[in-house]
Amino acid sequence: MVSRASYCATSSISPCKNSIVWQQESRKKQGQERKKNMLSQSQRTTILELHAQGVKKREIARVLGISRLSVRKVLRSNSPQVPLLQRAEKAEPYRQQILELLPRCKGNLVRVHEELVASGAVFSYQALTAFSRRHGLTEPPQQAAGQYHFLAGEELQHDTSPHEVELAGKKRRVQTASAVLCYSRMLFFQCFATFQRFDCKIFLTEALRYFGGSPQRVMTDNTHVVVLRGTGREMVPVPEMAAFAERFGFSFVAHERGDANRSARVERPFWFIERNFLAGRTFSSWPDLNGQARQWCERVNSTYKKHIRAVPRELFALEQRHLQPLPAWIPEVYRLHQRTVDVEGYVALHSNRYSVPVAWIGRRVEIRETKDKIEIQLDARNIVTHERIPDEQYQRITLGAHRPPRGQGLKRSDAHPEEQAILQAAPEIADYVSALKQHSHKLVVLALRQLLRLVREYPREPFLAAVREAARYGLYDLDRLERMILRRVQRDFFLLDEELEKEPSDE
Q: Which of 313 and 78 is assigned the larger pLDDT?
């Protein structure tokens, strides 16, 4: 057997370093022995009971597989309670210094330990974290998690989450909107390119139709899509969304900030959607994506769930009777846009361009956007309907009826109808019209239409005089031209206040 001294002498490591290693290993073994020799409360109780029955200490130690010294200590204490370890904490003398450093270091214990070591403290980072954890210096005390119980038809939870999908051969980031009935755990979700108030109303309308009724309230997070101001109980919904909720007979509520467990019914399925529905699936189009999502919901809602020990579809049979009936007529969700038809006969919406008849060029139209359609309306008798593209694809959609027959399209050499009307009414300004078409900052058709209005609305002489002056100075801003005409009209046809004062009275 090699002694410790001879080991240090023969080892290639320095004796001092070997001594430190030996001390560390010895302390580790001692700690393991203390932990091993720490008797549990049941063992201490057994020792006391066997001793009361007259069993000898040696026999008790043999039966329980412990040392006789441990048996004697238990009998000496005469208590089944495990004694508390009373040992000094290395960080205790620096408690006040730790409390002062925590706010300065923004709660980072690594920085706190560095500052303490720099000031002369000698203890490990692990000792600091253990001390802080035992005394609650950095982390709030843990509390037991509770459960939320909901009555049938009481609440529906709604939330959104971004996911990556393969759509039409390309990886896309979509917004997954989900709704869950809290009592039966019935799930419904759809995917959208964006999620604004328009999309939110479309989704909730489809969800309520899928469930066949509406609950008393809809729980949502503190999103600007629904929330106007406030959070939690003080949340005030946007008037547009409040009116939408009133139509279906429910009210919007929001959980307190940081209390995500309040909406756990809808938060939990997102992981399931990502790992099950989206895993390994590809989709050819948006209708294909949302169609498969609806079929997947049907299958999942008919599957037994271990965490609720029931089938959601069977619980829904009870909950559906407690849902409020839907209105007899549900209007289609839409939003309106105002656009001007460009010179190519298209209107732009969300980076996509939709065709209209050529006769509408330069006219103001109203666009009615719904879930599946784009309706472009010039007046009550002139409406064009396109299939809606749900995302920004920079496409140009042209209907066959809006393409002029071959050889009958508008030629670049042909004069605009407005130009012909201007030259018929005032042939003297032909040169100004030609220069206007080259130098105007507006669309040519809009500039010609504004000039035609000036020809028709104002007296001929002031109009021609203003055009001659504008042509002399190279002025092609028609708004300034109109102000020049108004000054001449005012001077020639109306008496100013100064002129009235100069006229003699009729006395």
A: 313
Residue-wise pLDDT for 46-71, tens only, equals 888 988 899 998 998 888 888 888 88
Question: b/e string for 252-265 if b means 16 or more Cβ within 10 A?
Answer: bbbbeeeeeebbeb
Tell me whether residue 25 is in a domain.
yes
Task: Count CB-CB contacts under 10 A for residue 270.
Answer: 17
Annotate 184-223 with three-state secondary structure: CCCEEEEEECCCCHHHHHHHHHHHHHHHCCECCEEEECCC
Co-location of 318 and 341 in the same domain: no
Q: Give this prediction's pTM.
A: 0.61
Residues 262 and 397 in one domain: no
291-327 confidence digits (pLDDT tens)? 999 999 999 999 999 988 999 999 999 999 999 999 9
Q: How far apart are CA 474 and CA 439, in angstroms?
A: 9
What's the rounded Cα separation, in Å, for the pair 430 and 428?
6
Residue 175 sits in the same domain as residue 213: yes
Range(s) of the domain holding residue 366:
335-402
Q: Cite the DSSP H helix spans in 78-196.
A: 95-104, 109-118, 125-134
